[in-house]
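Try this one yourself first.
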C-alpha cells in the first residue's frame, strides 16, 4: 500500500551524452570521419563507512593518423582528459602516470545532476598513442529532506545511480556493498558476482552495453539504523531512522503516538495486531514514485525522509485498510486518504487539498476496478499518469459514497467487513459469512447500514467511477433480487426471514434468492391457511413448522410435512368433538348415567396444543370407551328391566289363573260346604339346601301348563326371577269364606320362617 508523490527520478531516466572536445592545432582539412578517440572506462562504486567512492580507470587512445600535403604535415592530438562527475562530488582526484592532474569543473547546459570535468595533459596525446588515467571522487551526501535528491548517503544507507561513459562494447562496472546490507536494484540489472570477505560484488550481466547502462542502487545496512521502541494502544512500535536524523524520529513518534488513537476512534476498531510494527526511514519508495508504503505481510512501513504527517497517517491507516479487510486497491487507497484527512483535522495538523472531480479526458483515466499496483515498472509516463489519476479518483469516489450513505454507515460497513458480518441481518444476532469481501460487499453493507434508501445513488457512484458499465447486467439482477427480497420482508408473518435467503442475497446468488422466496412464500401461505383452519376449530396452531423454516438451510419439504400432520391432528380433534357430541342411542342413554363424553374434549385440545398426537388419540379412545361402557350398562339395564317386566307379567298371569280356578272351586264348595284340596296354590318353592333359585325355563312351565308365556318375550330366554322377585318360602292365598287352616306354620312378626 503506497502513497503516490511527485518525485523526479532524474537518475533513472537520464540519458548522458559524452562530450569530447579535441585540441588540434591544425584542424584536419578532410574533417574527421570518426571522433578520433577511443575511450574505455572500468568503473568501481564502493559503498562503505557512510561514503560511496567512485574509481574510474580510463584509457584514452588517439586513433587518428598524420598525413602530408605538400610541405605540410597534418596530425591530430588531444591535450585534455575529460569525464562527467556528479554535481557536488567531493575528494576529486585525477592522476596519470603517477602525476596528479588539476581538474576543472564546468556546468552542463540543462543538466543539474552532472557537470563536465577536464584536466590538462602534461603532454599531448599524439596519433596512435594511449594514456591511462585514474579518476576518483566521493558521491554527494544529498539532502535527506529533498525527495528529488539523486544521491543519498549516511552511516546506514546509500542510494546512488550506477553509470559509465565508456565506448560501446568495452569497459566494466563493479559495485561493492557491505555483505550484511540489503540491496535493491532499479533499472538495468546488476547480478551478484561474488563475495570477498565482508564485501558483496555486483556487475551487469555479460554482454551488456555499458555505454547505455542505467541503474539505481539502494543499499540499507539495517543494523546501523538508529532504533527506538515504544507502545501505542497496546501495540509495540519500532522506529528505525538514519543515524543522526533526530528530526525524523521526533516527527515519526509524534505522528504515531497521537495519530493511532485518533484513527481508532474514527474507524471504530482497535488497530489490528501487527505483531510489532516496524516503521523505517527509507527513500526506496521514492524510486517507485511513492512517498511510502505499508507491507501487510511484514507488518512494516517504509516511509521517506520528508517530515510529512499526512503521509505517515496515510500509511498507518493501511494497518486497517488492506487485502485482509477487503479486495480492491481503490477501496484501500480511497479509505486511507479519507481517514488520514479526517485524522489531520481532528489533530489540527495541516491538511492536503481535497480530491478533484475525475475527468474522462484526463491522462491515466481508467475504471477504478482495473487500477492495480504497477510495482516493478517506473519511468513510464503513462503508468505515472494512471497512478496520479487512481489516487485522486479513489479518494473522490469514497467521499461520494460517504456523502450518500453517511459517515456512520461507512464506519459500520468497515466494522462489519472486519467481523465478516452478513450484510442482510435477520431478527436474531448477525451471522458471520465467508463471502469474498470486495466492492459488492461494500455496496450491500453501505445500503443496509444507511438510515436512508440510498442504494440507487450508491450504484450510480460505482457505475460512474469504478465499474464503467462492465457489471451492468449483474447490477440489474441485484436490483431485481433486492426488490423481491424487500417485498418478501414486508409480508405479514411471525416467522423470521430464512437465513438461506439472506445468505444467498449476501453472496449475490440471485437465482437462489428468487427460488428461496418462492418456496418461502408457499410455506407461509400454507401455514396461514392452517392457522385459519385451526382457528375455525377453536385451536391455536403450534410453532412446529417454524423450526425447519428458520434453519440456516430451511427444509421447506419438512414444513409441508409438519403442516400436513397438524391439519391431520385438527381433523383428529374435530373427530373427538364429533364423537363426543353425537346423540346417544337408547342403550347408551340408559347406561350413561351422570357421565359426559365431552369431558375428554379439553384433553384432546390440550394434546393438540402440546403437539401430542398420542394425547389426541387417548382422548378419542376415552370418549369411545365411555360410550362403549354406556352401551354395555344400558343394554344390561334394559335387559333386566325387560326381565322384570316379563316376570311381573308371569306373576300376573299366574294370579289370574289362580283366581279363575278359585272361582270355579268356590262354586263347587258352596254346594258341599267343604274345603277342596286345591285351596292353596304353590307359586314357587325355595329349596333351603341350595344357594340359588332353581331356574325353570318358561317354555317348560308352559309345557307343564303352569304359566302361560309372556307375550312378546322369547320362550327360550332364561328368566332370572331372583333378580325381580323377593324370595319367599311359600306364597298362599286363602280361599274366600274359609277359615284358616292350621298347617303347622308359625306366624312371625318380622318375617317368614328361615329369614
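Now uncover the answer:
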Amino acid at each position: 500500500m503506497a502513497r503516490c508523490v511527485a518525485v523526479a527520478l532524474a537518475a533513472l531516466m537520464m540519458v548522458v551524452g559524452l562530450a569530447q572536445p579535441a585540441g588540434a592545432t591544425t584542424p584536419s582539412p578532410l574533417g574527421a570521419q570518426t571522433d578520433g578517440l577511443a575511450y574505455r572506462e572500468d568503473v568501481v562504486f564502493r559503498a562503505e563507512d557512510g561514503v560511496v567512492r567512485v574509481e574510474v580507470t580510463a584509457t584514452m587512445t588517439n586513433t587518428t593518423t598524420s598525413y602530408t600535403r605538400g610541405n605540410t604535415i597534418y596530425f591530430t592530438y588531444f591535450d585534455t582528459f575529460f569525464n562527467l562527475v556528479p554535481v557536488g562530488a567531493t575528494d576529486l582526484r585525477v592522476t596519470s602516470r603517477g602525476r596528479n592532474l588539476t581538474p576543472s569543473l564546468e556546468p552542463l547546459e540543462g543538466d543539474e545532476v552532472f557537470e563536465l570535468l577536464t584536466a590538462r595533459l602534461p603532454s599531448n596525446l599524439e596519433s596512435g598513442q594511449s594514456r591511462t588515467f585514474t579518476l576518483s571522487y566521493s558521491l554527494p551526501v544529498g539532502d535527506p529532506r529533498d525527495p528529488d535528491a539523486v544521491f543519498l548517503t549516511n552511516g546506514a544507507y546509500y542510494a546512488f545511480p550506477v553509470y559509465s561513459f565508456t565506448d560501446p562494447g568495452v569497459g566494466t562496472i563493479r559495485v561493492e556493498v557491505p555483505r550484511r546490507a540489503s540491496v535493491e536494484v532499479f533499472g538495468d540489472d546488476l547480478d551478484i558476482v561474488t563475495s570477498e570477505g565482508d564485501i558483496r560484488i555486483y556487475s551487469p550481466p555479460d554482454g551488456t552495453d555499458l555505454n547505455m547502462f542505467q541503474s539505481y542502487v539502494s543499499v540499507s545496512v539495517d543494523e546501523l539504523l538508529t532504533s527506538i521502541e515504544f507502545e501505542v494502544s497496546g501495540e509495540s512500535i519500532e522506529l528505525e531512522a538514519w543515524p543522526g536524523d533526530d528530526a525524523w524520529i521526533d516527527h515519526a513518534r509524534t505522528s504515531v503516538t497521537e495519530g493511532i488513537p485518533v484513527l481508532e476512534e474514527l474507524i471504530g476498531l482497535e488497530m489490528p495486531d501487527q505483531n510489532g510494527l516496524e516503521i523505517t526511514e527509507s527513500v526506496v519508495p521514492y524510486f517507485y514514485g511513492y512517498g511510502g508504503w505499508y507491507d501487510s505481510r511484514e507488518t512494516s512501513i517504509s516511509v521517506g525522509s520528508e517530515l510529512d504527517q499526512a503521509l505517515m497517517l496515510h500509511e498507518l491507516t493501511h494497518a486497517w485498510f488492506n487485502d485482509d479487510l477487503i479486495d480492491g486497491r481503490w477501496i484501500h487507497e480511497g479509505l486511507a486518504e479519507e481517514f488520514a484527512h479526517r485524522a489531520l483535522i481532528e489533530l489540527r495538523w495541516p491538511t492536503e487539498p481535497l480530491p478533484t472531480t475525475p475527468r474522462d479526458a484526463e491522462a491515466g483515466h481508467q475504471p477504478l476496478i482495473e487500477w492495480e499496483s504497477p510495482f516493478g515498472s517506473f519511468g513510464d509516463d503513462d503508468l505515472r499518469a494512471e497512478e496520479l489519476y487512481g489516487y485522486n479518483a479513489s479518494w473522490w469516489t469514497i467521499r461520494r459514497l460517504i456523502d450518500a450513505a453517511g459517515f456512520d454507515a461507512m464506519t459500520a460497513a468497515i466494522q462489519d467487513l472486519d467481523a465478516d458480518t452478513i450484510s442482510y441481518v435477520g431478527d436474531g444476532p448477525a451471522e458471520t459469512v465467508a463471502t469474498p469481501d470486495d466492492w459488492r460487499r461494500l455496496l450491500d453493507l453501505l445500503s443496509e447500514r444507511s438510515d436512508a434508501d440510498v442504494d440507487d445513488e450508491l450504484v450510480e457512484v460505482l457505475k460512474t467511477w469504478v465499474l464503467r458499465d462492465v457489471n451492468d447486467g449483474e447490477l440489474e439482477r441485484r436490483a431485481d433480487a433486492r426488490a423481491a427480497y424487500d417485498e418478501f420482508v414486508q409480508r405479514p408473518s411471525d416467522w423470521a426471514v430464512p437465513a438461506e435467503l439472506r445468505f444467498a442475497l449476501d453472496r449475490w446468488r440471485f437465482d437462489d434468492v428468487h427460488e428461496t422466496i418462492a418456496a418461502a412464500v408457499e410455506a407461509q401461505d400454507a401455514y396461514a391457511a392452517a392457522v385459519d383452519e385451526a382457528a375455525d376449530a377453536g385451536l391455536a396452531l403450534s410453532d412446529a413448522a417454524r423450526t425447519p423454516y428458520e434453519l440456516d438451510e430451511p427444509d421447506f419439504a419438512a414444513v409441508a410435512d409438519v403442516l400436513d400432520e397438524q391439519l391431520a391432528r385438527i381433523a383428529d380433534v374435530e373427530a373427538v368433538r364429533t364423537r363426543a357430541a353425537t346423540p346417544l342411542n337408547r342403550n347408551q342413554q340408559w347406561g350413561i348415567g351422570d357421565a359426559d363424553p365431552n369431558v375428554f374434549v379439553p384433553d384432546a385440545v390440550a394434546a393438540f396444543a402440546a403437539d401430542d398426537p398420542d394425547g389426541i388419540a387417548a382422548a378419542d379412545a376415552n370418549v369411545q370407551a365411555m360410550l362403549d361402557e354406556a352401551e354395555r350398562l344400558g343394554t344390561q339395564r334394559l335387559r333386566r328391566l325387560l326381565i322384570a317386566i316379563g316376570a311381573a307379567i308371569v306373576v300376573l298371569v299366574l294370579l289370574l289363573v289362580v283366581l279363575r280356578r278359585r272361582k270355579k272351586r268356590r262354586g263347587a264348595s258352596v254346594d258341599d260346604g267343604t274345603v277342596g284340596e286345591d285351596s292353596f296354590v304353590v307359586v314357587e318353592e325355595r329349596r333351603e339346601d341350595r344357594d340359588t333359585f332353581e331356574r325353570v325355563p318358561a317354555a317348560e312351565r308352559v309345557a307343564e301348563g303352569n304359566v302361560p308365556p309372556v307375550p312378546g318375550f322369547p320362550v327360550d330366554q332364561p328368566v332370572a326371577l331372583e333378580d325381580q322377585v323377593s324370595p319367599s318360602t311359600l306364597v298362599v292365598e286363602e280361599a274366600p269364606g274359609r277359615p284358616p287352616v292350621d298347617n303347622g306354620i308359625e306366624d312371625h312378626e318380622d318375617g317368614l320362617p328361615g329369614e
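Discussion: The mean pLDDT is 84. Residues 463 and 471 are 8 Å apart (CA to CA).
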